[in-house]
User: Fold these one by one.
Assistant:
Number 1:
Amino acid sequence: MRRLLTLFISSASLILLAGAPAPLHAQTKDRNSLNTAWLNPGPPVLTPTAFLSFCARNPADCQHGPATDDALFQARLRDRLLHRLGIGSGRELLPASITPDNRVEASDDTGLNGSPSPISLTPSDTRPKTLMTDEMWQTARQVNHDVNRRLRSRSDLSQFGRDDYWFVPDLNADAYGDCEDYVLLKRRLLIENGFAPDTLSIAIVETRRRETHAVLILTTDSGDFILDNLRNSIRPWTEVKYRWISRQSASDPLMWQSLDQKPRKHAGSV
């Protein structure tokens, strides 16, 4: 009888383990076998007006670090907002780290009025990448899961009485927000936990239902990974079925780039 009971317990344990999710260390190891690739950025595009408005209220959330020239950042932000309202010269001030010799000529209002505005862009290959450890993967997964669980979805129209108002929710209160608010909160929490700001970028996508949606891109040494309020797992961008529209530039958070649907592989990948 004791032998039969031992066999029964062992069999039951195997069944339970087979149905249980893989432990975190096993999940994070799987990233090495994924088809890793980075999103392929294209020409500059229009920076979302709601994002510029958010930056005016929360400049610390829109800069890549203390090395940023705050006075120049504020001046460029003000210039872009005035230009969006049709006030001022409409010329974009260059970031402090970029000279006119390597700027890209493009229109800030592409798709609106076609008026030219010289803007700057660092080559995409210089985008910083986070060298991910198991501990960092644990942190990223925990932040993604906690924000998705604790923040309740609510449209800007029902919460603020207007469309497209970006803000960072407070999880210590009754927390509500829509997709970009999830992104902004996750980005802030990851930075507070040691992630470099220039490896975390906001992206705008179109879902299969043709709805505009925002996600957070974590650029790592293994590729671009997506933190999304529609799923609790962090997946490579190639496994997320969206149409990619635009993302923040690595060199300048006030600059946004269009996105190519074809991946850019690492030089050493096959």
Number 2:
Amino acid sequence: MPFAQFSGDALFEQLKSTLETLTSPVAGEPLFSGEDAFGPVIVRQHDDYRTLCFDAVFEQSKMRMSAPAEPVFTYIRAMLLASCFAPNRTALVLGLGGGSLVRALAQLQPDCVTTAVEIRPLVIDVAQRFFLLENHAHCQLVCADASEYLRQASPHSTDLILADLYWSLVMDQQQKSSEFIQLCKKHLSEQGWLALNMASRKDVDDKLLQVLYRSFDDVFSCSFPNSNTVLLAGSVQQCGGMANFYQRLEQVSDRWHGALDGVGRALVRVTASNLPAV
């Protein structure tokens, strides 16, 4: 068989497999199906996993019932790297989904007071009913638009912001705007860190990186093949240096059987010289 023909057939099979994956409905028994002004909200159970979807195809959030605090998706693990730079007294999660970040923070730093902001009341209700979340002294669930909440919040009052704003597969574009970054920066404490979950590398454009680079002392990128790109921004010096970060990362990763080792190795520091290349 000619090489060109072989390459074409292999490419066709790869594309076919990808399309079948993208168009296959999420597996599992339906536990809940509802709809609000923003679209569907679906909960499914498949073996040990419970999944939240905003359509019939893509998984928005996933929880392992036997270990609900451990993050399933790689990008969630990458976002949690921001919590390893310093102990956090307060944290702000923008975009609740199924609450993966909230549950993980509660286990990693039980004394941290976490506020989760979600614009959809139905998503908050579903998270409480099906994903082990509830309002209590160390966790407050707030129904609001993320940017509007930041505008009204007290400045320099949060040690950690984890931004994960999505409409189904589509990222909320406010998350990459200069105004949003500045609002987050204003809300963070002196040693605070920001984590942004970007849908793909193409969403990490030069303008966004430059805004982050001008606003924060240190910026890191964490990318994975066929997955999201996570950006971390803060001040390493204010948190005691990278040695302290890696020590905390090792402690956290050991608790989750090495779950954060791979994402920690994927960190790339953004500098003036590599801004366009990250």
Number 3:
Amino acid sequence: MRTDDRATAAERMLKLFDRRTEIEAVWLFPPRSRASAGASAIGSTDLGILFTAGGTPPDSSAWLERLTAELDRVGVIGPRVVLLEQAEATLRHRAIERGQAIFFRDMTKVREFRARTWMEYVDRESPTAQRIASMRTGTGLAQDWAHERVEALHQHTERIGATLRGAGERFAVDRAVQDSILFNLLQACQASEDLFVELLARTPEGPEDPMDERDPLGALIRLGALPPDLAGRLAAVMRLRNVVLYRYAELDLGVVLKHLPSAIEALEELATSWDELSAAGEGAAG
């Protein structure tokens, strides 16, 4: 499929989700067999569906068949559709941690679902459950989840740096190295967006407009909730993320490599300054 055809199919898919009012959010994520490669082409990924409150269909099998047929008609052929409410914690965790939210109506509900999924995954699946549980100090689910996002941000930026140092000139020709770096960049950006939403929720103004939740960094910049220099550099990182995510088929790796050092620096600064930033937001709110 040509790039323009794929873009048209993706636009039709998003319009389809918007018409389906029972759909709250959709994640694009890699199947278990490709989990290390990240989500790229729609046909080789899974689609995770989150329903609106009370929107779960009584006959989910028939609903899935109808949705799959509608996706076929708009040119989206191949992805497996997963109903996230009915999925195990491990699968839901993979959807939100390794995938990308491509559609949502209310970011607050998405944030709640992510936090709930993370907690269930930690309690039931993760070998570090006891360690994380011992770190909880009664500050609540959102605080625990935000700290997990900060740790994820640290991990992904460290992996990018280590991969780059180990690859050297092989970056230009080694597809495995390229995929690893791009995947970790997308995951670091997702963790950052989660932190933007969390920080926005802690500001006294909060989201003033529904569109704020779709562009939390833009709202934080408008509210002056981030240092201007850091905000500008994070905005540049998000633009790089969009190039990687939406123009993958025609990606200029030289451009990515040129901007990676400054992107890593900005992401690491967000992670290391999170406690200070969140405390400032809570103090202003109080």
